[in-house]
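To close the chapter, one final illustration. This time we ask the reader to focus less on the individual chains and more on the assembly as a whole: which components sit near each other, and how the overall shape emerges from the parts.
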Amino acid sequence: MKEKVDRAISEVIASAGFIAGEQVWKLEETLAAYVDRKTCISCANGTDAISIALMAAGVGEAGGGSKKDAVFVPDFTFFSSGECPATIGATPIFTDINESTYNIDPDALEKAIKKVKTEDDLIPRAVIAVDLFGQPFDYERIRELCSKYDMLLLEDAAQGFGGYYMTSSGEKIKAGKLGGISTTSFYPAKPLGCYGDGGAIFTDDARIADLCRSIAWHGKDTENPANPVSAYENIRLGMNSRLDTIQAAILLAKFPDFTEHELDDVNHVAALYSDRLKDIKGLGLPQVEKNCFSSWAQYTIRLPEGADRRNIQQRLRTKGIPTQVYYFKPMHKQVAFKNTRSADADCPVAEKLCNRVLSLPVHPYLSDIEVKWICEELNKALMEEI
Ligand SMILES: *Cc1c(COP(=O)(O)O)cnc(C)c1O
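The assembled structure is written out below.
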């Protein structure tokens, strides 16, 4: 892709349209069409995308009283999913996950919602459902709970872009369209990565879309495009969160490869891992539900009980195989939430997994030979453990 990407970067430099250049709008149109949504609003990163979406939906305001909005978040996710609701004045309530899909568990979620409903100072307001490691969350059940308890469903598709969920009536819904509002990230390690930070928000709601654009642009008056000074007319408090034109141009240059072969190729890599690792005793493999397609942001295994993760990582590292622990700590145990209501969570599955998960290298450009070799080396490292 080097030539295409280099050319895209040079074009932006030559045009000097560094902010809000034509590539930004083209990218938004391209991505909105891809996920089949009315609007895509690009922004500076996936974290801002979540905050902007929550602000646009009025989450965190709790009707202005002494109560706070409760936002339900899986206990096993990247920090942003819980950080964003907390920074805008809501209370994240961390909820347990399913052991083999790693995504939020609908039964645990309903239990947590019912508990919050008994508390005087919290109002159930939203669910941030994460497509963890590339697999869409249990969309139909979570959506049902959101309508039952009248909550916003916000999809954090930072890792899920490119995946889809097939409904029981056979409708394929892409990640990015599974929430009332959905967000994603173009951080380099995500399925569709740029060359720095980037993010986007997707919605079909024109009012929310306007608010998101305004908030991402210092609260400017987007409702009145005829206003000639609208860029300097600030009608609400927002932030500075635009996607650089250079990043948009890079994403546009990379996008055809993403849809044409990268998603299939990374699925081939994951399938080969699962085939090669399936007979190792005590090893847990990531499970993709039959009605889901994953974009495999990570291939995350669960080590056998008692195996020393650090030793295994060290052994693999000496062979030149990088591994990473996503995530070593459940959200409710993060120091940032110490002594808050958010630290109070009942998430035994998330706690167990934090001690056992290990993410192996996964991307569309890994060869079969490399995958087989990684599996052999992992097997050897495990044998020496037992
Ligand atoms: C990466 C990530 C984010 C944040 O995206 P940034 O672009 O790094 O801000 C949010 N949620 C999840 C689940 C992520 O993996």
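The two ends are 44 Å apart (CA to CA). The chain has a mean pLDDT of 96. With these observations in hand, you are ready for the problems at the end of the chapter.
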